[in-house]
Amino acid sequence: MNSTRTTGGTTSWRNWAGTVTAHPVRTVTPATVEELAAQVRRAAAEGLTVKAVGTGHSFTAAAATDGVLVRPERLIGPVRLDRAARTVTAGAGTPLKVLNRALDAAGWSLTNMGDIMEQTVAGAVSTGTHGTGRSSASVAAQITALDLVTADGSLLHCSARENPEVFAAARIGLGALGVITSVTFAVEPRFLLTAREEPMPFDRVVGDFHQLVWGNEHFEFYWFPHTEHCNTKRNNRSPGPADPLPRVRGWVDDELLSNAVFQAACSLGRAAPAAVPAIARVAGRALSARVYTDTAYRVFTSPRRVRFVEMEYALPREAAVPALRELKAMVERSDLRIGFPVEVRVAPADDIPLSTACGREAVYIAVHQYRGAPYREYFGAVERIMTAHQGRPHWGKLHTRDAEYLSAAYPRFAEFTAVRDRLDPDRVFGNAYLGRVLGA
């Protein structure tokens, strides 16, 4: 009995930031892989494109379609832990927060993760979600296998031994190769992290940047534009015991200050842009140091309730300091009013064709603006700095690059597009965004 839920073309889809709206012919929520495969075959026969969406945390139109929109929330199933193989398998629609909590309850953990866990498993890996780390960062780099429904409705199991060329490409596939139905990750026994968060002047952070990176397992910092203030975060493994933030302190820092008060400050800055530098100085001075030890996923991730738009570029690690100094100088000489901090993270090199860290150690520089505040001039000026340093844009965040630029920026770009041509020659999984970044 077919249990796929289908809705008509009057249903629209909007991403989390409000930057993308899609009006598909129909939206489907298949409950099984067989139902998904049937929907893909039907769409192909009708000449419609197919795109799967998760929770909409990407800022680009990577998942937008005017054809068939696949919602994966029923493609979940149980989280399957293989202790002997040290792997976990989750359905494509499983939210990362569900995966993390299930692993934690069983005594296991991912090695690294990004700073939010609202995304679905498939959505997070498809666009290259990453955290920060000296020797680990990308969620996709932890994949050991995945299952993919391809354009003809076939189910393809991919790993380093089965369909290895597809596996290599599909770990960050942008939804261009098919619809992911499940992902298997390498996991390790649950561990604790000690987090040290400390305010630090900009010049000291960039002056000691490489030492801070190599001296810590996970280092990142936030710089508040219009100020000299930064907040640094150093996370390192700990033998314990656990010493989490007191419940009240955690709520005050992570909910009241980082979300409610910050939301109010952003709203004020949007209404009165001239006040933004003063607000930034107050916010920077309000930072205080804190140290705590907790289960890894609770340290890696934080609630993010203030909505924003974002652009992020990955640069060669050696370009970090000059690019950051150029960014700061650009803001200081401009009339821009930037209410959101700039986030800086790192990653080791990996071998995934469309990974922003493919073949080189990366520094990530992310810029944000509050949703509804002007951002195009700011992002454009930042993008000129990033591309001058051989930057690679995050696939799920705003940028203006196209296939001509990206094919030169990625040494294995042609390898990915060759796999795409083989699996989806008719572009069943195509859309305008993929046409721009991957080529026709």
UniProtKB/TrEMBL annotation:
Keyword Cell inner membrane appears in the UniProt entry: no
Entry keywords, A to Z: Ascorbate biosynthesis, Oxidoreductase
GO MF term set: D-arabinono-1,4-lactone oxidase activity; FAD binding; L-gulono-1,4-lactone dehydrogenase activity
Keyword presence, Oxidoreductase: yes
UniProt-listed InterPro entries: ALO_C (IPR007173), FAD-bd_PCMH (IPR016166), FAD-bd_PCMH-like_sf (IPR036318), FAD-bd_PCMH_sub1 (IPR016167), FAD-bd_PCMH_sub2 (IPR016169), FAD_lactone_oxidase-like (IPR010031), Oxid_FAD_bind_N (IPR006094), Oxy_OxRdtase_FAD_BS (IPR006093)
One GO cellular component term noted in the UniProt record for this chain: membrane
Protein origin, superkingdom: Bacteria
Pathway in which the depicted protein is active: Cofactor biosynthesis; L-ascorbate biosynthesis
Biological processes, Gene Ontology terms: L-ascorbic acid biosynthetic process
TM regions (residue ranges): none
Domain spans labelled FAD-binding PCMH-type: 20-190
Gene3D superfamilies assigned: 3.30.465.10, 3.30.70.2520, Uridine Diphospho-n-acetylenolpyruvylglucosamine Reductase, domain 2 (3.30.43.10), Vanillyl-alcohol Oxidase, Chain A, domain 4 (1.10.45.10)
Similarity section: Belongs to the oxygen-dependent FAD-linked oxidoreductase family.
Name used for this protein in its record: D-arabinono-1,4-lactone oxidase
